[in-house]
Task: structure prediction
Amino acid sequence: MQVYTTGQAAKLLQVAPKTICTWFDSGRLRGYRIPGSQDRRIPQEYLVKFLEDHGMPIPEELRPTPDAPPKLNHLRLKLHIRHLHVILQQSLSKSISDTDTITHLLQFRDNVMKAINDN
Result:
């Protein structure tokens, strides 16, 4: 979770740092103070909620990003692609039957789907 200083929040919202402090001190913008100092910190979720509650535009930097796709084991994926290349070469050269080609392609698909689901 990203946490912003009043200066960072002010820059994101294009307002003066004093405005952020006023919103914070009035309780409209939630956050916390650093123990032993008067410095304020505003978690991203509170900043976004404040903007939503007040009908203010949410800067691109604060918008949630879609979940990243699962990372595949690249070595495993390379082996599957190499296998696909062999299947296609054999099929094109007619050294294996169309039925065997389909069987191998289905097996390839299953192996790749397993690799994706294992991540």
